Give the backbone structure.
Amino acid sequence: MARPSKHSAVFRSEVIALWRASAGRRTFKDIAADLNVNPEKLRTWVRDADGRPLTVGASQETEAELARLRAENVRLARAEKEWQLEREILRRAAAYFAREMK
């Protein structure tokens, strides 16, 4: 099990916002040194946050869409298992009848 982070989500989001506000004038190393954070950790936080809002909660529409997609994923996984079983049965039947023909 991974060790829990000693930095809170709020701290991380504020550090990311600070780095983005610097608009390239400061490096990861400079900001990390000021805040006593590992520069690679800061780089990872920024990379993970790219494309995602810095807010903690998601909207209801997003949550509903995520739930729908998860349910569909489960349904498709079950269907795939059924198809694999059907293919295996057909493969064995074809092998059986091929032996009978000889």
